[in-house]
Amino acid sequence: MIEADHGKNWLTNSGIWSGLVGLALGVFVVWSGYKLKIGSIHDPGSGFVVFYTGILMCLFAISILVSAVTEGSPTVRSLWAGTRWTKPVIVSACLTVFALVLEPLGFLLSTIPLMVLLLRVIDPVRWTLTIPLAVLSPLCVWWVLKHGLLIQLPAGMFGIG
User: Fold this and answer.
1) Could you tell me the mean pLDDT of each successive run of 10 residues in the chain, 161 residues long?
2) Which residue spans within the chain are E strands per DSSP?
3) In the chain, what are the domain boundaries?
């Protein structure tokens, strides 16, 4: 088990850092909502939901900060100790390649190999389940988006999809 140093040192207290980042993000969301015009409860503007969501974010961030200051929290270093980076790096690389080949190959021809890689490499699933899932899932999504919702997806150079 990883030891959590619950010291009060604010430089290494992960709760303080996460609370500060959350508070900064919440303030940005409040400011963005205000710029979009809040309106009133009877005539909400486009920033109404954004503004009040930002206020909630700020309240949650303040609760994290209060908890971190009063009770302490693990150090930043202890949170990342023993982290295995192999699978997140593989997923990031797969999604980067997917983004690069989506337009040239199209939705179906790029999504099916992505699904196979994710199902076999990241969380190994037997082939008898991988192939049907990797083919049927993108086909169903493609059909719903194209025929049900009338959303155009990239067909690629082969015009498939």
Assistant:
1) 51 86 96 92 91 96 91 80 85 94 91 92 90 93 91 81 67
2) none
3) 14-80, 86-148
Q: Which of 27, 99, 34, 91 is nearest to 62 (CA)?
A: 27
How far apart, in Å, are the Cα atoms of 3 and each of 9, 10, 28, 49, 64? Answer: 16, 18, 34, 41, 21
Dist. CA 114–CA 92, nearest whole Å: 11
Give yes or no for a contact between 8 and 82, defined as CB atoms under 8 angstroms apart: no
Q: How would DSSP label each residue in 110-152?
A: HHHHHHHHIIIIIS---HHHHHHHHHHHHHHHHHIIIIIS---
148 phi and psi angles, rounded to 5 deg: -80, -45
pLDDT of residue 2: 42
